[in-house]
Design brief:
By secondary structure, the chain is an all-alpha fold. It is 74% helix and 0% strand. It binds one RNA strand of 10 nucleotides through residues 2, 5-6, 9, 35-41, 43-44, 70-79, 82, 101-110, 139-144, 146-147, 174-176, 178-179, 181-182, 185, 204-214, 239.
RNA sequence: CUUGUUCGGA
């Protein structure tokens, strides 16, 4: 069976996930019994193929086979509904999970974000902070949240996330710093963005580009050009 | 690297 799993996993990462679903069907018709891994890989195929109906059949199988308390599997299911259906179905799974951890919350947040339900995102963040450690927001949570704030121009909330980031000493994370730069820029606070930029030890092409367009979008075209030169002097090639 | 979430700027 591990060979079948390997096959389906490979299909789930390929550009033809539908073949993985076919393969799964075939193996069950041949009387083989899928395990958690099989179901998980098959779900990934369904997500990638946007195959809601097939995914729901796997859902049924999960329940029938008694894998309901496998939280990782349930999180994958959430992702299926998040991508192929909507918040309501994803939340239903979320709500019925026996153990909700940080990743499950992150899936929920990303789903809510895609559906522009910002206020609910906020609420989830709040409850995550007050719950036990297995639900505490992590770096991915912050990344998601900062991106949302940037899109919405939600400075106040973005600052709260920033405080949290610094409490947790995610301060050296390149991705988080870049997300902060973008968030402040889009909220119109280039100076704050620049402070972040300056104190960064490691900078990316992304960091530079974020800073440059931050200046540009706030009407500091000259500084943008200046930054661009400085970047090249640092030996970083523009793309 | 045999089960889950983000993948950064434009």
């Amino acid at each position: 069976i591990s060979h079948y799993n390997a096959m389906i996993l490979a299909f789930s990462r390929s550009e033809s996930p539908a073949h993985g679903i076919k393969f799964y069907r075939k193996m069950t018709q041949d009387g083989l019994v899928p395990d958690q891994l099989t179901l998980s890989f098959c779900l990934k195929c369904c997500v990638k193929d946007l195959a809601l109906f097939e995914g729901m059949q796997v859902h049924v199988r999960i329940l029938v086979d008694g894998f309901k308390k496998d939280s990782i599997l349930m999180t994958t299911l959430m992702d299926l509904y998040s991508v192929c259906s909507g918040c309501d179905d994803a939340y239903k799974v979320f709500d019925e999970m026996s153990m909700r951890d940080t990743v499950a919350c992150n899936v929920m947040i990303s789903c809510l974000m895609n559906n522009k339900r910002t206020r609910d995102v906020l609420a989830v963040f709040d409850t995550m902070q007050s719950l036990k450690r297995h639900c505490r927001p992590d770096d991915v949570t912050c990344l998601l949240l900062l991106q949302a704030c940037a899109d919405l121009g939600a400075l106040e909330f973005g600052s709260r996330v920033r405080d949290y980031v610094e409490e947790q000493r995610y301060g050296e994370s390149l991705k988080l710093n870049n997300a902060l730069i973008t968030m402040y820029s889009k909220c119109g606070y280039v100076d704050e963005a620049y402070k972040i930029f300056k104190r960064m030890h490691a900078k990316n092409l992304v960091s530079w580009s974020a800073m440059i367009s931050g200046f540009a979008m706030n009407g500091y075209g000259f500084d943008a050009i200046e930054m661009f030169r400085e970047m090249q002097n640092m030996g970083i090639a523009p793309d």
